[in-house]
Write a structure and sequence with these properties.
Elements lengths: L25 H29 L6 H34 L3
Helix pairs in contact: 1-2
């Protein structure tokens, strides 16, 4: 004998807390600020090295080239890290709850 189909009872929909989005944690903020500061420092060192080389001070060409390459690589790495963070954020925002 077949049993009749009954409704599902006792299942509650999930409760989503209604809380405002929090500010970024201090640790992430300080890490980001430190990375930006290091990139700016490399840029300033490269600029100073180029200025010293062009003014004829005791600055070797290879030292200037290394400083500019270091600054360029630091900026490229920072931009790639930013792109990864943005991509991760966009992926999280596409998730359905």
């Amino acid at each position: 004998m077949a049993l009749p189909i009954t409704g599902v009872s006792g299942i509650q929909p999930p409760v989503i807390p209604n809380r405002p989005p929090s500010a970024p944690s201090g640790e992430f903020r300080s890490m980001l600020a430190g990375a930006i500061q290091r990139v700016e420092q490399f840029q300033q060192q490269a600029t100073q090295s180029v200025d010293r080389y062009l003014s004829g001070e005791n600055e070797d060409l290879h030292t200037t080239a290394l400083a500019t390459q270091r600054a360029e690589l630091a900026l490229d790495m920072f931009v790639q890290a930013r792109n990864k963070v943005v991509a991760a954020y966009q992926e999280i925002m596409r998730m359905q709850m």
